[in-house]
Amino acid sequence: MATKSVIRNVNQHVGETVTIGAWINNKRSSGKIQFLQLRDGSGYIQGVVVKSEVSEQVWDDAKSLTQESSLYVTGVIREEPRSQSGYEMTVTGIEIIHLTENYPITPKEHGVDYLMDHRHLWLRTQKQRAIMVIRAEIIRAVQDYFDSNGFTLVDPPILTPTSAEGTTNLFHTKYFDEDAYLTQSGQLYMEAAAMALGKVYSFGPTFRAEKSKTRRHLIEFWMIEPEMAFTDHEGSLQIQEQFISHVVQSVVKNCRQELETIGRDISKLEAIQAPFPRITYDEAIEFLHTQDFDIPWGEDFGAPHETAIAEKYDKPVFITHYPAGIKAFYMKPDPNRPEVVLCADMIAPEGYGEIIGGSQRIDDPQLLEERFKEHDLSMETYQWYMDLRKYGTVPHSGFGLGLERTVAWICGLDHVRETIPFPRTLYRLYP
Known about the structure:
This protein is α+β, with helices and mostly antiparallel strands. The protein is built from 13 helices and 19 strands. It has an eight-stranded mixed sheet. It has a five-stranded mixed beta barrel with strand order 2-3-4-6-5. Helix 4 (about 125-150) packs across helix 6 (about 235-255) and helix 4 packs across helix 13 (about 405-410).
């Protein structure tokens, strides 16, 4: 009697007869042998149907199978060094579940808009599956790092009464009789959680109503936001580089086959080990001037600037001490130079831009109150946030990692739309 299995586990059943629920990824024939390219979500394997070794019914059923038809396939697992998985199935039985007709995504080339319209089916392709497996491993590694280093997972609200950073790029909704917004960051709430639990992190969806169409932007994306009490700027930078090193090396270790499937240069990822290089904003401006960029001091960096800086390094690079005027109201000024703040953006190599933004937070209640006035923020709305400084204020720092940009960098993708199962972009809300 056949043992039920999944493709990922066939290495445990060499020489045995197994049954796998699968779909036909592709099929080819050479006269008296049919080769079925099978997938089941856990992996891929080739099923070989030899006409002289199966019943006429099995042979005819195999001939009738079309792309993405579903079936239970039974056969003997054997080692096959030439196959990607290292194994192959000699098919002895087929039970058809459903025969598919006119499957929309064929092995030919399709345009991006067409593929996005059929995203629910595009996910089934080998490359897209590999990206989703890598995304899942990144999430697992993120949680493993924080759970293993004394952080507590806390879930901030998605509906908020205000912006976290004082911007207007928010999705407005009605919360009964009050105005509410979809969160653009859980950071302020994580600061409150850190005052209760010491070291915390959140992992959840965030929303930005920016009308941006770049390859780095999504409307809905996922953020990892750690916050740490009794931690200064330097301590936060060390945690960030250790964290990213852990995540990247976990993917290299556990997703090598998927990285090979998407054609990623794994040697570039193997080089991602802490510590990471650092330059100040001032040094970055000086460097950009040598590269013929006409950017004045006090202006924020765009994608071309970040790419030019990152090209100097084969690891992520920290840009630290940005001018206070281009950063959020809650960032702590450098005591030795108040016009810049104790912050850093981590820029990924290979042109993928900022993947982490972080800072030491203002812990002086008087200074924070001054910032509220400078940014024209409502003291009434943010009173609870002021309470964190009023009752037991401490030095604390935190940062935010954009998951999709990180997936894009680790996978070497051209656009973030492939990094999330169902991307939400400026002109895309379907499917």
